[in-house]
Structures are given as C-alpha cells and as structure tokens.
Amino acid sequence: MPFFQQIFTLLANAPGNLIYHLALAFSAAGALQEAVGQWRTSGYPQTRRMISGLSLLLAGQAVLFVTSGLVWQGALPANTFLPPLDRAILLFSLTWALWMWAFPEPSRAGDLGAVLFSLLTLTGLIFGIILQSAQPAADVFNLSAQNLGWNSALLALLAASVLSLVSRKPIGWSNGLALAALAALGIILDFFFPAAGNYSGILRLFLMAGFPLLLTLPARFPAAGGGVKTDTISRFQKNVAQSAKANLPSQPLRERRRYSTDPKTLTSLIALASEVDAARINQNIARSVAQALLADLCFVIYMGEDKNTLFIASGYDLIREEFLEGGLMNKDTVPMLAGAILRGRALRLPASTTSSDLKGLGDMLGLPNPGNLLNVPIAGEKGHIGSILLLSPYSNRLWNADDQTFLTNIATSFIPIIERSRRMAEVEHERDYAHQQVEEAKSVTERLQTINANLNGELESLKSQAAQAGQAESARQEALKEIEKVRIENEKLKSRLESAKASAGNQPAGSSEYLESELRLTLEETARLQNALADANIKILEMEKRPAGRLSADQTEVIASIAQELRQPMSSILGYTDLLLGESVGILGALQRKFMERIKSSTERVGSLIDDLIQISTLETGLMALKPETVDLNLIIDNAMAYTSSQLREKSITLQIDLPENIPPVQSDRDALQQILIHLLQNAGSVSPVEGAVTLKVGLEKENDQDYLLLQITDSGGGIPADDLTRVFSRLYRADNALIQGVGDTGVGLSIAKTLTEAQGGRIWVETQIGSGSIFSVLLPVHPLSVESEA
User: Fold this and answer.
1) Whole-angstrom Cα distance, residue 375 to residue 107?
2) How far is CA 251 from the centre of its chain?
3) Closest C-alpha among 300, 288, 283 to residue 262
4) 399/77 Cα distance (integer angstroms)
5) Cβ(532)–Cβ(479) under 8 Å?
6) Which of 24, 106, 716, 758 is 20 to 30 Å from 474 by CA-CA measure?
7) Distance (Å, whole) CA 185 – CA 192
8) Cα–Cα distance between 444 and 570 in angstroms, integer?
C-alpha cells in the first residue's frame, strides 16, 4: 500500500504530474497521426470526424500546458485557476473521446449532445474559478464540494456514454467501454480514498491506463488497399458447390479480379454508344459500369433542375443479371450520400453498423447489409448532373482509390451521351426562356426611363429650392442692414429727445408733439423690420434643415420603394442569364453567348447604379448611422483590392501598395472605410490608361496631439484642371457642367467618399498635376471622439 501511495502522490504533484500530462498528450497525438494517415489513404468521412475529435483533445491539453506555464511564471494564482481547469479539461477530453467511439458517423443527437456538454463544461469552469478565488489559499481542492460536483458530472457523462455504446454497438465499441469503465473506477476509488491535495493520483493512474486505448480508434475501419482477397461472387460459389456434390476436386480460391475483360462489357458499351432513348441509355450505363468494375449493384442517380431533388434513373444487379427499377431518393435517410451528390463530390464508405446512410440504402433496397459504398459524380467541364453509385452487399468488396479513379474516368465519358438525349427538348426550352428574358428586359428599360424622368423632375425642384434659399439669405442681409440704419437713427432721435425734454419749458408745445410723432413712426418702422427679419430667419432655418441638393424623407422613401421594385425583375434577368450561360438548358452559339454576356454585364451595371442611388438618398437625408469599431486595416485593403481587381485587370493596370510595418487598429465604421477605398480605387482605375499604374499608400500623421491615418491613392491619368477642382467631389457636376478631365465615371462615388469621410471627423482632398496624374488623400482620426455619428 505505501508503494501505491507513493505513486499516487507522485502523479498528483510536480514534477511527477508531468508524466500524466505527457501520457495523455502523446496518446492523443499518436492516434491523431494514425487518423491523418488513414484519411490520406482511404478518404473515409469517419476518419475526418476522428481527426476533429483528437484535435480537440490535443487543444485541451495545450490550454492546460499554457495555463500551467503562466502559473509557474507567477502571472496567475495557482490555487485559483489550475484545479478547476484540470477538472474541466478532463471532462472536456472524455466527452469528445467517448463521442468518437459512440458516434463514428454523423449523428445530429450525438453531435449536439457533445457540443452542449462542452458548453456546460465551459460554464462550470467560469463559475468554478470565481468560487475558488473566494476560498482561502490553504484549503484543499480535492476535499471541497466543487471537486465533488466535477466528479458527479464525470460520472453522469460516463453513464450516458456507456448507454450509447451498449445500445448502438458501433465498430470497436468495447474499447470505448473499457475507457469509460477505467475512468469510472478511478472516480469511485477517489471518492472512498480522497487525497489531501488539489489533484487525485488514483484517478490520474486509471486515466493513464485508459487513454492509450485512443490508439485503437483509427483501426476500427479497414484501410482501402490495392488487392482485397474476398470470396468470389455467387455464381462461382454455386459452381464450387456443384463440383463438391459431384466429388470433383475443388479449385483453390483466387484473388478476385477487380476489373472485367468479359466480352459482355464491350457489347454493353457498343450498345450504349448507339442508343438514343433516354431510359435505355441509363440502363446500359448501369450495366456497363457493373460489368466493367465487377460491382454487385450499380445505380445511376440524377439531380433535378432545382439541384435539390435526387432520383434513381436505373440500376443493375450483376449477380442476378437483371435491371432494377428507379425511383425518388429520400435525402433524409442518406444525408452523407445526398450531400456528396449535390456537391459533386466522390464518397467512399466502409460497411458500418451505425451508418445512417448504409441503413437507409438497406431499407430502400431491401438488403440487410448494403456492404461497402462508392459514389463518384457524373461531371464534365460544365458541372455535374448526377452520380454513379456502387454497392457490394454480396462480395463485401472494399473500394479503394484506384477504383474511384477508374470509375471517375468512365463517368466523365458518359456526359456527351447523356446530353445528346436531352439536347432537342432543351433547345425549345431555351427559346422560350430567351423570349421571356427579352420581354422582361424591355419592361425594365421602360421603367428605368420613367425613373430617369422622375429624377430629372426632382433635380429641377431641388434647384428651385436652392434659388429660394439664396433669395432668402439676400433678404436677410438687406434686413440686417436696414435694422442697423434704423438703430443708428433711433439713437440719434433718442439723443434729440433727451435734449428736447431738457429744454421743453423754452419750446412751443407743437414742437414737442412733432418730435413724439417722429419717434413713434421710427419705432413702428423698427418693429416692422424686426418682423421681416424674423420671417427671413424662419425661412433660413427651414432651408438649413433641408439644404439644397438634399432629398426629403418622402422623396427618399419613394426612391427606395422604386429601387426595391427594380430588384425583383433584375434578379430574374440575372438568374435566367446565368442559366443560359451555364448551358444547362442547351448549348449556345458564339454570337448568342456574346449577346448574353452583354445583357448580364449591363444588368449588373444597372444594379450597381441602383445601389449608389439608394446610398446617395440615405446620405443626403441623414438616415445613415455610422458605428465606429476597431477594424483591421489590412483586411479592409484586401477586400477593396478584391472588389476592384477585375476592373484593374481588364486594363492591365499595376497596383502598387506602400504600407508601414505596423498599422495600429483604427476606430472607424467598417463598411464606410471600405466604401471610401473602393470608390477611390475605382476612380483611379477608370482614369488611368491601359497598362498604367495605381499606388495605394498608407501612413500615420499627427496633428494637434491627435493621431491620424492618411490614405493616398495616386493614379496615372492626365490630371485635373485647376478650374474644375472645386467640382470634383460634387455629385451634381454631371448634370450642371461638362465632364471633368482627370476624373473617371464615378462622380457619385467621389461624393459618397467625401460624405463618409467627413461623417467620421476626417477630411478628403485632391492634389493634381496636369500630365502626371492626381493624388486623392483621406485623413481619418485613429481614435474618434464620439462612439456613434450620423452622416
């Protein structure tokens, strides 16, 4: 007993506890290495789940190692963090280890349960650290009520895992059961023989004995090697049985041939090449593939036009040499297979007792065990349209990578044959779609013309409002001048009145009355001018509330409503255009494709203009709220470059970027900052010549003890004339004046960039040189004063 007591003490305290942590980490790392190797050779989805689970185990151990290092350096208190974290990592590791044993295939209930238990573990860790921080440093964690709670949670997890393993009985479930039993035994012994410390040496000893069982996880599913020795097919077994009855010497079983050289295979392929009927084509495809690969069962599966419906077109049973009828496939019963078919991916599954896909196929085909599964897409240069499915319920043949490659090459050759049977019907369908598209394009054009006329009317109305505002300002200035004159006259009259009152005894009565009437008239005139000034101020305030050039809320609502109505027909046009360009409903000629690409480009351009229209309306009415947050400028620059790369690439423009080594985080509205960069880069790309150059430079400036971020975009255009510099950032220069030399076709974009910059407390300006190009500069504060601003 003293010997075991020494072992328990060694495992629960430094430096012996390092052996425990290394044993758990090396067990998980070794199993992960084996799982990765099996994934590379077999491609089974079960091994991918194993890789995920084992990676989580290693991540938990890494977190524990890092925290222990911080405690050792004195950055964290030892008794507060390490004991609750040790129990939480153990509970987290056992959760995912037993999940890998109990649920080797995708299971919604099992996956959700593991995730929820992990979240509960994280919550318990947070509360555990809070409770432990309130305890005296001399208290022993292993004898505390919190440790009892962690052990109870471990026992509950182990009980649920044992029930899952016993009820499901997946491959290799006994090893998982052994790990659960060892962990439970360690917890029970720790309860009866508690250690006077923060960690349990008894429990760690049993976990060290159980965790090496993780190395058996990858061995549950056989590796797909080259030749697989199996029994021959049923016809050969019958021949062997008949020879045994006739007292003939039986021949030794040979390794099964993986590919057929039977003349029937060549006959099937020739019949397939000459067939024109769609139903017979599918039957011949299934028979040819089954005979070529010696597959027990072969099925041809297609997708519906909505890319969401699957149906079995035909099947072939090689053992019985008969065709099988098709039908709709329920995606819910075969989720992995349905996902692979819809995504155009190959799939290999080994025979498994817990695979929902194999169970669903078995119920669909009336087979107790469908055997091993191989599915490859029927895909060509224009995408995938279905797949070919192979099963081995009789021979239990294990499909390998060579079989997958061979079947993929065969499936590719079937594309022209399948398309040939569909082409005539699709040409007629294409004609109807094209006619409908033209009609919708005409309707959209008419509506755009109506909108253009309405916008022109709104523009004239805004111009008249601006003129009225100017007149009101002039009237206000004139009123101020008149009031000043009246004030001076009033002062003079007051002084005269004072002198008149002083000498009232020496003046006639009529003279005094005259002065009083003059003063009354002057005061009445002053009141009238003050009323006029008040009316002018009211008009000025109304104009300031809605400056010239801005839209009212009603006008903005009308524009937004019209834009939303335009989106539906535009989406329909884009959808039909993509459908025709994808040639999924028929092959396009060179001229037809050219016209369709022009239609798509023009429609996308109209969509961009509608987005600019909505944004201009929102900015002008002050309805757009900017929300500053900490943003990574590198990510903003990458997104802006990706958005404008096609425009620069079309003109072979070189984009040069000059960034400092360390860019501090910027407090700015993410979308607003990205739009500013995009509009400036688009303008530079539009004005630069073919094979020109555009430079983006980022720097830091300091003004009045405030840090600023400086963005400079330099183009290689011809420069902007000095007379036009005042109109560069005005959104109305297109309508009022001629085009500005040195500015691209993004006048609205530059106006948006200016508005968004000023809304964030920054400023934007342009420096130009005729013949050399222009430099657009944006200066933004690194840390804005307000948390939220409105533009």
Assistant:
1) 21
2) 61
3) 288
4) 56
5) yes
6) 758
7) 11
8) 8
The radius of gyration computed from the CA coordinates of the chain, to the nearest angstrom, equals 41
Answer yes or no: are the C-beta atoms of 679 and 757 closer than 8 Å.
Answer: no
Sign of dihedral through CA atoms 18, 22, 23, 28?
A: positive
Phi, psi of 226 (to 5 degrees): -75, -90
CA 685 to CA 170: how far, in whole Å?
61
Q: Distance (Å, rounded) from C-alpha 168 to C-alpha 233? A: 31
In whole angstroms, give the CA distance from residue 152 to residue 114: 17
Cis amide linkage into residue 15, ω under 30° from 0:
yes
Three-state DSSP at 767 gives strand
Distance of alpha carbon 385 from alpha carbon 412, whole angstroms: 11
Query: Where is 349: in which H helix or E strand?
Result: strand 347-349
Residue whose token pair is 């523009």: 459
Assign 3-class secondary structure to 370-387. Answer: CCCEEEEEEEECCEEEEE
Mean pLDDT is lowest, of 263-272, 518-527, 713-722, for: 518-527
- pTM more than 0.70: no
Cross-strand bridge partners of residue 303: 310
CB contact at 8 A, 773 and 698: no
Name the residue with tokens 């009980």: 159
Which long-range contacts link 415-418 to residues 24+ away (Cβ below 8 Å)?
415/378, 415/379, 415/380, 415/385, 417/272, 417/273, 417/275, 417/281, 417/285, 418/281, 418/378, 418/385
- Give 412-439 pLDDT, tens digit per residue: 877 777 777 666 546 656 777 777 777 7
Neighbours of 121 (CB within 10 A): 20
Q: Residue 12: pLDDT above 60?
A: no
